[in-house]
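Hey L., structure's done. Input below.
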Amino acid sequence: MIASASFRARILVAGAAVAFVLALGPGHAALAKEKASHAKAESTKSGKDAKKSKAKEKDAKPGKGADQGKAAQLGTFGEWGAYATQGKAKTCYALAQPKSREPSSLKRDPAYIFISTRPAENVKSEISFIIGFPMKDGSEATAEVGSSSFSLIAKGANAWVKNPAEESRLIEAMKRHAKLTVKATSAKGKTTTDTYVLTGLGQALEKAHKACH
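Output:
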């Protein structure tokens, strides 16, 4: 089981990665669809509100006072995006959102999977999942790819491979298959299934690794 200190470190990285993605408005398919939906909703507001919204989006993007901790999008590959932060404590990662979520009627926050490399911490290809709802701490979820199933351990709305030694095996399996299915149960007992399309994963990982080499 992952130690509590490691949990805290991973949660900080998870939150930072998602914040970077939301600020950048990445171009992989799932997030692009979400952004388009948001833009459509904004168009119904008054012209004054729309101008304010555009100003905020402009300020959120790197390039205006970019500094340490800001992330840059390195590229989009299929359903995956590759990113890298700036500064000494550099983090590079490949990230995607699920292509489908079941049950579709269940309201919850966005879900993500990202695979990060942090040279300053001697961490390479660490897999993290953001499930989109609180789970019971210590409860287990599963990641299934091909005929293989990997146990995940939960902390809040985050999950990681229970046995870190299996992370490399999971990544290799993901490179060979078309989809990944993540099953989890919320603290309220709701069971969900998120399906990720793996097209572009290998290219996104290669790009991220090179940026943190």
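The chain has a mean pLDDT of 77. The chain has one domain: 4-211.

-- N.
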